[in-house]
Amino acid sequence: MTFPRVKRGTRGYNIAEVDAFIAEARIAYDSNIAGASTLTSHAIRDTSFGLAKGGYSTRHVDGALERLETAFAERERAVALATMGEAAWLEQASRNSAELTARFSREPKHRFSRVGFLSQGYAIKDVDAFADRVLAYLLQGEPLSVADVRSVTFRAARGGYDEAQVDAVLDALVDLLLSLGNN
Predict the structure, then answer these.
(1) In this structure, what DSSP letter does residue 60 have?
(2) Exposed, middle or buried, 73 (CB in 10 Å: 0-12/13-18/19+)?
(3) 81: left (phi over 0), alpha (psi -120 to 50) or beta
(4) Which of 9, 34, 167, 182 is exposed most, by the fewest CB atoms within 10 A?
């Protein structure tokens, strides 16, 4: 698989790194042995590539990685259902949902740790607005997709929420959505 390349003087993803990763992912996905692959949907989400002049279009590669992550997550869900059974799988999804509900139910301005006053973090108002949307999904079943979570952006603000903590919770939310098939 090849991707469109950026213009000559523009930086895109390193072609050799992307090609190597896609080849590894193809082999891992084509493996018919459950659990034989060490590549997971979560590992795909955490994948990053160096930038190089004339590299692959980041938009196109990122889109392909999102589709690949979804495909791996669907397979992981099928394997989990087959090995754990539906009741155990639903119990695990329920526990994960309860943990996220507890986090997002916290009072606004207190949902995440804050960085120091002079440090940059995510704007509290932005994160809390999205947290309310997540809570509406978790409690009332309002629509929320993996794409909604992946595309959310927050402004930077001094004394804001700790970015690493917010990102980790959003990763857990993506894991939950993928496990439930809310692509």
Answers:
(1) H
(2) buried
(3) alpha
(4) 9
Residues 6+ positions from 154 with CB-CB distance below 8 Å: 122, 123, 126, 127, 130, 160, 166
Average pLDDT over residues 15-27: 94
Dist CA 3 CA 57 (whole Å): 7
pLDDT at 36 over 60: no
Q: Which residue type is seen at 96?
A: N
pLDDT tier at 29 (50, 70, 90 boundaries)? confident
Say if CB 178 and CB 80 are below 8 A apart: no
Residues 6+ away with beta carbon under 8 Å from 51: 11, 12, 13, 14
Tell me the C-alpha distance between 36 and 38, whole Å. 7
Long-range contacts formed by 58-66: CB under 8 A, 24+ apart: 58/6, 58/12, 58/13, 60/3, 60/4, 61/3, 61/12, 61/13, 61/18, 64/1, 64/3, 64/22, 66/146, 66/147, 66/150
